[in-house]
Design brief:
The protein is an alpha+beta fold and 931 residues long. The chain contains 26 helices and 38 strands. The chain folds into four domains: 240 residues, 3-Layer(aba) Sandwich (Rossmann fold); 173 residues, no CATH class; 246 residues, no CATH class; 177 residues, no CATH class.
Length: 931
C-alpha cells in the first residue's frame, strides 16, 4: 500500500485554480522535491498532504485513509505519530532547551521519560547537536536552529517528513548539510521537500515534481544510492492513546512567566491584592468580628447578664442613722434562730470628752489607788459575763445574779499584783478573789471636763476578777452601759452625728448572732432586711478595748444602721435567678469587685494577692502598702506561685472571680465564703495546695503622690476544680461581700451590692434581656458581649463596605488583567500555537498549554493572597492578644475566605481559558489565514 496518494485533486483560491484533477502516488520512502513558480500551490500542497487543509475536492489518502473522512482530531493524531515537519523559519519553542524541543512530539506518544530522553539525545547526536542539548534555543544560530527543527521532525520516527523551504534562511554550507541529512533520512521514510533550489533537487532528489497550471509533472532522477544505515534507534511501540503530562505545560508556563517578568509580576500583584481584599472582606465579616467580640469579651471579664441600678451614678448613701431599739427588737424577733440577743454602744471620743479626769480608783487603807487602763470607755466597751466561756475561771466564783453597781473585772497580771500589794494580800488571782468574797471592793469612777464645767463620781462594787491581757468590765446586764452613761451619768444621745451639743453621745444598737454572721446574712437576704438596714461588723471604730486598729475583729457583733441608699435588692436578685433559671450568679460589692458593662471593665477594685505561701503574700502586701498614684504596679514582680488581681491590671494576667460552676470537673461547689474552687491553671500554679492565702485592701487613703493601702490577710480553702486556663477562682454568689466583710474586715458601707453578673451564654442573654428590662424598669440589664458585638458590628459594617468596594474594583481590574493576559498570550504566542497544531497537538491540548500560564499566574496570586491573609489574621490575633490578653480560643485558620478566593480566582481563570478555547477552536492554522 502506498504511503501517500493524491487522486483527482481540485483546489482553488477564488478564481485561481491551484490543482485541476491532480493525481499522484508517493512510495513509502525516498526523497521527493516539489518545485514550481511562486503561487503555484507548493505550500498549499504541503498542508493538503499533512491533513491541515481539507478544503478541496478529490481524495488524499494516507495508507488508504482519506483525510476528508477523518475528524480534525484524528488527522492531528496522524500528524503527531506519523509526520514530521521542517519549516523555512524553523518554528521552535524559543524559551525551552534544545532537549525539551526535541522531546516535545515524543511526549504525547511515549510514557517513559527515559526512553524519550534517550531518543532525543540520539537524534541530536546524529545531527551533530549533542553538546547543545541543555542550551536554550533562542541562543542558537540559524543553522543550529534548523538542525533542531530536523531533530523534532525525526524524533517520533515519522513515516513522512514534509520540509517546506528548509534551507531558505540558511547559507550554502548549512543548506548542503540539511540536504545531506534529508537524503540520509529518506532511506527509511518518505521525505517531501518543497523548494526553489533546482540544483539541490537534481543532486539529491529521487524524483522531481513540478507544479504548473494546476498539474503535477514528475521526473525521476538517477542519483547514485548511498549505503543505507540506521542513524538512530527506533522507539518502542507508541501509546494507543495520545496523552500529555500537565507538568510539561506548567514548566513551559514558568518559562513564559520568566520571559515576561514585569508584566507577570504586575499581574500577580494586582490579582493577589484583589483576592486579598476579597478575603479580608470575608475575614472581617466572619472572623475578625468574632475575634474582636472574644477579645473585648475577655477584657470585660463578665460573661452573662449584668444587672445594675439605673441610678448608678448617685451616691450609695444619702443619710445614715442608727437603728432605734424598736427596729432592732423587731429584727431579733424576725430572726430568732439566727439572733441571740442585742445590745447597745455609744460612739464618741471618750478621751476628749473627759480630758481632765477619767480614772477608776479603789480604797486601800484610806488611800486612793488607781486601776491602770480603766476609764469611761471601758464602761461602754464592757462585755457580757454570760458570753464568757464557761471554762474561764472567775475568782472567787462566777456570779449568777448581779446588781447594776456590781462588776467583774479582768486584770492583766501586773495590775493584779499592784492591787494585791495595795490591799496587802498575797499576790494571786485566787487570794484577790478570796478577799472579794469576804468583802467586795468599792471602785470609784471620777470624770471631769473643766471646759464644760462638768465633773462626776460613780461608785461600783468589784465582786469578781479574772485573768486577761487587757482590763475589761463584765456584767450580766446587756444594757449596763446604757444604765451607767444615760441613767447614772445623764448623757444625752442621738442616732446620728450631731455637733449641736458637745457632750452628745451617738447611740448604736448591735445584734449578736447565734452562730456566725454569714448564716444571718444568708437568711436576711431572703427578705427586705438588707434593703433597709446596714449591718456593720465590730471593729476598732466601735470597740477600741478589744480590737486592734487596722486588724480584723474576732467579735461577731453586728451594729445596725438605717440608711437611704441606692443599691440592688437581694430579693430582686433571688427572684430573677429563680424566674429565669440562673442558678450561677455573682453579687459584686462596691469596693471589693466591680463589673462596669459600659466601660468593659471588671476585676478587683483594689490590689488582691493570692498564693500558696502565706509569707510571700504578706511580703507582697507589705511592699504594696504604699504605691504611687500614677504607677501603682510599676515595680510589681510576682513569684511563680502568687497571682494578682486588680481591674486596671492586664486582663490576661489578672486574677478574677466567677460563680459559674458549669465546668466543675472535680470536688464540690463552695458553700461558705472561705471555700473556693480554682481553675486548672491555678491548680497547677499552686501545685494542688488545699489552703491558699490572700491579701486584700479594705481601705486606702491619699498621701500626697502616694496611696496608702490597708491590706488584710485571709485564708481560703480549695474544695473543687473547674476546667479553664484563666487565673480564676470560683466562689459563692456573695463572696465579694461576705468574705470581705467577715474574713477581711471591710466595712459593710463599702460593700453594698452595686451590680450582679448572672452567668449564662449569649443566646440565653439575648432571649431574656427584653423581659428583664420590662419587668424591672428601675434596673439596667446588659450583656457586655452583646453590647460589644453590636458596637463591633457597626465598625465592621463600615470596614466591610470599604473592603467590598475595594475588592469589587480590584476584582474587576484583575478580571480585565486576566483577559488582557489571555489576549496577549494568544497573540504573542500564535507561532507556538501554529507549531503545536502542525505537530499534531489537538486544539484542546493547545488550550491546556496556554491555560497553564493563566493557571500559574492565578495559583501564584492565590498563594500570595492566602499567605498574606493568614499573616494578617495571625498579626491581628496576636495584636488582640497583646492588647486585650490571651484569648481562651487558639488561633485557627478559617478556610471559608480561602475557598471563596479560590472560587473567584478560578472563575476568572475559567473565563479566560474559555476565551482562549474560543479563539483557538475558531482559529484557522492553515497558510491562507493571516497568522
Amino acid at each position: 500500500m502506498r504511503c501517500l496518494e493524491i487522486s483527482n485533486l481540485y483546489k482553488s483560491y477564488g478564481k485561481q485554480k491551484l490543482f485541476e484533477g491532480v493525481s499522484f502516488s508517493f512510495p513509502n520512502k525516498g526523497l521527493f522535491f516539489v518545485v514550481g513558480d511562486s503561487g503555484s500551490g507548493k505550500s498549499t500542497l504541503f498542508e493538503i498532504l499533512s491533513g491541515i487543509d481539507t478544503d478541496y475536492t478529490g481524495d488524499v489518502l494516507f495508507y488508504g485513509k482519506a483525510f476528508q473522512d477523518l475528524t480534525e482530531e484524528e488527522r492531528n493524531d496522524i500528524r503527531l505519530m506519523d509526520f514530521g515537519f521542517i519549516r523555512q523559519n524553523y518554528d521552535l519553542l524559543e524559551l525551552e532547551s534544545v532537549l525539551e524541543n526535541v522531546m516535545l512530539p515524543i511526549s504525547g506518544t511515549q510514557k517513559k521519560k527515559k526512553l524519550r530522553k534517550r531518543k532525543a539525545l540520539e537524534t541530536l547526536e546524529f545531527l551533530g547537536m549533542a553538546d547543545k542539548w541543555k542550551q536554550c534555543t533562542n541562543t542558537l544560530s540559524g543553522g543550529e536552529k534548523q538542525r533542531v527543527a530536523i531533530a523534532i521532525a525525526l524524533a517520533n520516527d515519522p513515516k513522512v517528513i514534509l520540509a517546506d523551504e528548509p534551507t531558505g534562511a540558511l547559507d550554502k554550507k548549512n543548506s548542503e548539510d540539511v540536504y545531506r541529512i534529508l537524503k540520509e533520512v529518506s532511506k527509511r521514510c518518505l521525505v517531501i521537500v518543497v523548494s526553489h533550489d533546482l540544483d539541490a533537487a537534481n543532486r539529491y532528489g529521487d524524483e522531481l515534481l513540478t507544479l504548473a497550471e494546476g498539474k503535477i509533472s514528475s521526473e525521476k532522477k538517477d542519483n547514485p544510492p548511498t549505503k543505507e544505515h540506521s542513524f538512530v534507534s527506533f522507539l518502542p511501540p507508541k501509546k494507543e492513546r495520545i496523552s500529555w503530562n500537565p507538568f510539561l505545560w506548567i514548566k513551559h508556563a514558568i518559562h513564559l512567566f520568566q520571559a515576561k517578568k514585569i508584566r507577570s509580576l504586575l499581574t500577580v500583584s494586582i490579582v493577589s491584592f484583589s483576592l486579598l481584599a476579597l478575603g479580608l472582606s470575608l475575614y472581617v465579616q466572619r472572623d475578625l468580628q468574632k475575634e474582636l467580640n472574644n477579645a473585648f469579651g475577655e477584657w470585660s471579664g463578665s460573661k452573662g447578664v449584668i444587672m445594675e441600678s439605673n441610678s448608678k451614678n448617685e451616691q450609695t448613701f444619702q443619710r445614715i442613722i442608727s437603728a432605734n431599739e424598736k427596729e432592732v427588737v423587731s429584727l431579733k424577733n424576725e430572726y430568732p434562730e439566727e439572733i441571740k440577743d442585742y445590745g447597745v454602744s455609744y460612739l464618741c471620743s471618750y478621751e476628749n470628752y473627759f480630758k481632765d479626769e477619767n480614772e477608776f480608783y479603789f480604797d486601800s487603807f484610806g488611800k486612793k489607788s488607781k486601776i491602770p487602763g480603766l476609764g469611761v470607755r471601758n464602761i461602754n466597751e464592757y462585755r457580757w459575763l454570760d458570753e464568757l466561756p464557761l471554762e474561764t475561771i472567775v475568782y472567787p466564783e462566777r456570779p449568777k445574779v448581779m446588781e447594776n453597781e456590781q462588776i467583774v473585772l479582768s486584770l492583766p497580771y501586773p495590775s493584779m499584783v499592784s492591787m494585791c500589794l495595795a490591799l496587802q494580800i498575797e499576790r494571786s488571782y485566787f487570794s484577790l478573789g478570796k478577799y472579794l468574797l469576804e468583802k467586795p471592793l468599792e471602785i470609784l469612777l471620777e470624770t471631769a471636763n473643766d471646759s464644760w464645767g462638768y465633773s462626776d463620781v460613780q461608785l461600783f462594787s468589784l465582786v469578781g476578777v479574772l485573768e486577761e491581757n487587757s482590763p475589761t468590765i463584765y456584767q450580766l446586764n446587756h444594757f449596763w452601759n446604757e444604765y451607767v452613761l444615760e441613767d447614772c451619768m445623764g448623757f444625752p444621745t442621738s442616732d446620728e452625728e450631731d455637733s449641736s451639743v458637745p457632750w452628745l453621745l451617738r447611740k448604736v444598737y448591735f445584734l449578736l448572732p447565734r452562730d456566725d454572721e454569714e448564716s444571718f446574712f444568708s437568711k436576711a437576704r431572703e427578705g427586705k432586711t438588707l434593703d433597709r438596714f446596714v449591718f456593720e461588723r465590730d471593729s476598732y471604730d466601735f470597740d477600741q478595748s478589744h480590737n486592734e486598729k487596722n486588724k480584723n475583729s474576732s467579735s461577731n457583733r453586728l451594729y445596725v444602721f438605717q440608711a437611704d441608699k441606692q443599691a440592688l435588692s437581694y430579693r430582686d436578685i433571688k427572684e430573677i435567678a429563680d424566674r429565669f433559671h440562673l442558678s450561677d450568679y455573682s453579687v459584686l460589692g462596691e469596693a471589693s469587685y466591680l463589673s462596669i458593662s459600659g466601660a468593659m471593665v471588671s476585676g478587683f477594685v483594689n490590689p488582691f494577692f493570692l498564693g500558696s505561701a502565706q509569707e510571700k503574700v504578706v511580703n507582697l502586701s507589705e511592699g504594696m502598702s504604699k504605691t504611687e498614684k500614677d504607677k501603682p504596679y510599676a515595680d510589681l514582680a510576682l513569684p511563680d506561685d502568687v497571682s494578682f488581681g486588680q481591674y486596671l491590671y492586664r486582663r490576661d494576667k489578672a486574677l478574677t472571680i466567677s460563680s459559674d460552676f458549669s465546668n466543675l470537673v472535680k470536688g464540690k461547689k463552695p458553700t461558705r465564703s472561705d471555700e473556693i474552687c480554682v481553675s486548672e491553671k491555678l491548680f497547677r500554679k499552686f501545685k494542688g495546695k488545699e489552703t491558699l492565702y490572700c491579701a486584700g485592701v479594705v481601705s486606702n487613703r491619699d498621701k500626697g503622690d502616694f496611696i496608702e493601702n490597708d491590706f488584710r490577710i485571709g485564708e481560703l480553702h480549695v474544695v473543687g476544680l473547674v476546667k479553664g486556663e484563666e487565673e480564676t477562682i470560683y466562689v459563692t454568689s456573695n463572696w465579694s461581700i461576705d468574705y470581705w466583710r467577715d474574713e477581711l474586715g471591710m466595712s459593710s458601707f463599702s460593700l453594698e451590692a452595686k451590680s450582679v453578673v448572672f452567668h449564662c451564654d449569649s443566646s440565653k442573654a439575648k432571649q431574656i434581656l427584653p423581659f428583664l428590662s420590662a419587668s424591672y424598669p428601675s434596673m439596667r440589664f446588659s450583656d457586655p458581649s452583646l453590647t460589644i458585638e453590636s458596637s463591633v458590628k457597626n465598625v465592621i459594617d463600615y470596614v466591610q463596605i470599604i473592603l467590598r468596594f475595594a475588592s469589587f474594583l480590584t476584582l474587576l481590574t484583575a478580571g480585565f488583567l486576566f483577559l488582557t493576559n489571555a489576549l496577549l498570550l494568544s497573540f504573542e504566542n500564535k507561532k507556538e500555537a501554529k507549531l503545536f497544531f502542525e505537530l499534531g497537538i489537538r486544539r484542546k491540548t493547545i488550550v491546556d498549554a496556554f491555560g497553564s500560564n493563566l493557571l500559574l499566574l492565578g495559583s501564584l496570586s492565590l498563594l500570595i493572597a492566602c499567605s498574606s491573609l493568614i499573616s494578617v489574621e495571625f498579626t491581628l490575633h496576636k495584636t488582640l492578644e497583646e492588647n486585650f490578653g490571651k484569648s481562651s480560643s487558639f488561633f485557627q485558620i478559617d478556610l471559608y475566605p480561602a475557598v471563596f478566593m479560590c472560587f473567584f480566582l478560578f472563575f476568572g481563570v475559567f473565563v479566560s481559558i474559555l476565551f482562549l478555547l474560543f479563539w483557538i477552536r475558531h482559529k484557522d492554522f492553515s497558510r491562507k489565514s493571516n497568522f
